[in-house]
């Protein structure tokens, strides 16, 4: 805290506004406040959209970017020549994405608002170090989320895909919640194909991490769907086969692996 305040003070003095350097926003509310309940994050006349707000949020987000630069510089120097690919996890903060201020993202250090792209600077930083941009909430659809919170994971993933495309940095993905249904699998396939405005037709996610392994994954129906999902992911965005066809092909593999799957499910339960 001491070093953060010292940095803030120095930044305020450099901006010719020393009075801005003693503290952060005092009207930003608390953890469980909604954006419109706080003077700083409300859409009309909110402090986030003032010269002070721009100063503070620029400084705050730059602290995160500087930290990333330091960590990546160290990591690349350590693993240089070792054949290791460095990937950086970036949180998928989709709550209140539909608001103007994007308060949850701002508080996390991502200076992303309706009027500013906060993910392009992150992507550019990763590109400088040859790292992968690893993003989450790939399985989510906008209409599945609480509408009163204006969640928009699909729009957020699209923004990140465009930012990584502009920065020419590889994009990897993860699901945020355990999902075993074809609806979620289809969303992952769609998102990982990176079919968004302005993206090259031959661009796809470079990797995908499926979370989370637990007994439910090894339920016979879930396992069959998962095997089919993996097959479709392997085939890539050019494949146009229906789920039923792929699941029929997966049946033989499911049958052969059933004894091992039962053992895995029992082991996870204990």
Automatic annotation (TrEMBL):
It comes from the Eukaryota. The keyword DNA damage does not apply. It catalyses: Hydrolysis of (1->4)-alpha-D-glucosidic linkages in polysaccharides so as to remove successive maltose units from the non-reducing ends of the chains. It holds the Pfam family Glyco_hydro_14. It is an enzyme of class 3 (hydrolase). Gene3D superfamilies: Glycosidases. Keywords: Carbohydrate metabolism, Glycosidase, Hydrolase, Polysaccharide degradation. The keyword Isomerase does not apply. Its EC number is 3.2.1.2. InterPro entries: GH (IPR017853), Glyco_hydro_14 (IPR001554), Glyco_hydro_14B_pln (IPR001371). Belongs to the glycosyl hydrolase 14 family. This is Beta-amylase. It comes from Gossypium arboreum. The lineage of its organism: Eukaryota, Viridiplantae, Streptophyta, Embryophyta, Tracheophyta.
